[in-house]
Amino acid sequence: MSARVFLIGAGPGDPDLLTIKAHRLLQSADVILHDSLVDKRILALAADHAELVDVGKRCGKHSATQATINKLLVSYARTGQIIVRLKGGDPMIFGRATEELQCLQAADICCEIIPGITAATAAAASLQHSLTQRGIARSLHFLTGHGAEGGLPKHDWVSLTRTGGTLVIYMGSQTIAGLASHLIEAGMNPAMPAIAVENASLPEQTITIATISTLPNRLSRPTGPTILLIGEAMGNKEEAAVAAAQLVAG
Ligand SMILES: C[S@@+](CC[C@H](N)C(=O)[O-])C[C@H]1O[C@@H](n2cnc3c(N)ncnc32)[C@H](O)[C@@H]1O
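Above: inputs. Below: predicted complex with S-adenosylmethionine.
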């Protein structure tokens, strides 16, 4: 049986960053269940007859509970129409896709997943900083900045300071002060480059360039979705070029 439910990544906001497949499916969907974070210009791609259902998720918070969203998804899917479940960024990164997929599977409903551009790579493109860098950042770590019960998540802070890679923190703008102090207490150099990108890919994008110790004060109460990028690779591009040249010479 071919899929009638499509779990689609809407990307970071700019409609031009949708995949061609996402664009095509949005135009043919009968029902679109979408998060609040999804840009209006993307929703405007829907057919005139399409029913748009805002399930309210925004920055990890949501007005409809996850259980309600799961039930809605299954009941719409049972109508036999083409259903799109549209999530910001990539649906498989901090998108609670597993719960929705499990509910659909339990109801014997097929679902196809269409990946989207995640906030991390959209921010890297805006910054023109690679998230990995030869000799400087050998790994990449996607983290939540928000615990399931609110407040800080229970990360292994010491391990995070020893990765030798770039830390990308989703949903961390409200907890940045706690995140920064845990990382510094765990051994991170207070001068470690740290950048916040708010509304990546959108006209209202704002970039705050700082260090892990100065970012909490420099970041002025962002209202849009904000991603944090921490690590040597976020430092001065000239330094990175010198280090790369030294590697080649060595
Ligand atoms: C619930 S998570 C969803 C992540 C999404 N699935 C993705 O792959 O980008 C929401 C968080 O993603 C980040 N985010 C999403 N869109 C963003 C954007 N355009 N600019 C910066 N951060 C963004 C923010 O950290 C926000 O709090």
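DSSP finds nine helices and ten strands in the chain.
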